[in-house]
Amino acid sequence: MAISRNKVNHFAPSTAEYVVAHAKWRKSRGRKPSATYSLHKNPTKALKWARRYAYFPISGKYLEGKVPEYYVCGGCGETGIKLWREYQTSLEQTTLLCMACSCNEQSKARIPTEDGCSLYTGTVFHFYRTEGMLPNQGIGYNPKEGPPPEAIEIYTVQERTDQIGWRVPAVPTEGCMNFWGYTSVPSAGVKWWRNLPFACQ
Ligand SMILES: [Zn+2]
Fold this sequence. Notes:
binds zinc ion
């Protein structure tokens, strides 16, 4: 099926879906694939790699832009918000919990990041940099001891995660009820989950 350049650009360039769609568009114009993907700088190898991971939503829109009816917090009964599931647990034993209920269960504190995509753990890492080092080459130090005298710059980084204890984001698959493995969620699924709020407004 032919694909327009406009449609190709709907996919983020760093995704497997972009590489596959881009190759389709090139083929429709009688050309060879030219997009690269992550570590694969050879376009043919990149396409082979991307074909294994690319996922295109069944209806064009992931889960048709809806929230499945089983996607309900088992603690407070809220729906339409981000939920977490236990890591590596069979589907029969999987329970879904919202951020607040997950934090309670796992005895963890989490604050949503400003971009709405991740969570702060509250842990802050302290780094320093000396003159000979590149701007992104910080060395961690203990704030109680302070940075060494040769430090020319000190900065902090807040720890981020999308996990709450043993719980990971619950991203439903399309079709029958199931969830993507933690490291295999396709970009359309990630986007679907990120678009959900952390709590009811
Ligand atoms: Zn809840």
